Amino acid sequence: MSILIHVANVMYLLSYLVKDILWLRLLSILGGALLMIMYALAVPPLFTPLAWGTVFAGINAYQIYLLVLERRPVRLKEEEQRLYQRVFRSLTPREFVKLLALARWERAGAAERIVEKGRPLDRMMVIVSGTTAVQVDGTALTQLGEGQFIGEMSYITGEPPSADVVAVEETRYVSWPQQDLKRFLAGNRALEAAMQLVIGTDLVAKLRA
User: Fold this and answer.
1) Complete edge-to-edge strand list for the sheet that includes strand 132-136
2) Which of 10, 49, 62, 171 stands 20 to 30 A from 160 (CA)?
């Protein structure tokens, strides 16, 4: 029995020394399992600490499962990979996948209006391929291409857009419902900060142009 106690405590000691949370939980389960063997072999068996040990092991096992899921390699489709490299490199691949889960992939034909001046906009978009023109009263001010945002100012300010955005050619883009995106980012401050950096970088590039 004393050997089990010593080995179990060595496992706990090692768990406190490792920096990786996954190894910490694995070693904690191992140490707890050794103590549970001791509780089960005691005469009479110590059912109360055995029950609590089972609870702790179950919690750690579930957290290990979540960690393993979180660390699985992320595989992106070619189109997603291009978008990630072009726009969202400040996010981790897994954060990007979570962001894409909220998005819709859409397509606009040539001359199709994507954004209408003065009409409330309920989504923010990023161009995946193609070109759009920013127009005011039918006059083109500038063009937006692959990797550039559409509707980001309305997303930031909540104000209706001050210009039309019209597809110059067939254009494919990704869109996020504004409210859904804001709620999602509000629950993940690190990702919210990363997205602010992405949008800010796009705005700076537009101002320079």
Assistant:
1) 113-115, 164-167, 132-136, 139-144
2) 171
Q: Report whether 125 contacts 151 (CB < 8 A).
A: yes
Q: Using the Cα atoms of residue 112, residue 118, residue 124 and residue 126 in order, give the sign of their dihedral.
A: positive
What's the rounded Cα separation, in Å, for the pair 66 and 115? Answer: 40
Same domain, 184 and 88: yes
Give the count of domains, the chain. 2
Q: Which residue has the tokens 């996954």?
A: 22
- Distance, in Å, from the CA atom of 9 to the CA atom of 95, rounded to the nearest integer, reads 37
Question: Is there a single domain that holds both residue 89 and residue 183?
Answer: yes
Q: In the sheet that 171-177 helps form, which strands lie side by side, from edge to edge?
A: 104-108, 171-177, 123-129, 149-150
> CATH code at 98?
2.60.120.10
82 and 49: one domain? no
**Structural domain containing residue 56:** 2-71
Over residues 140-166, the mean pLDDT reads 93
Query: Residue 150 has what pLDDT?
Result: 95
Q: State the number of CA atoms in the 13 A half-sphere of 206 facing the CB.
A: 20
> Do 61 and 114 belong to one domain?
no
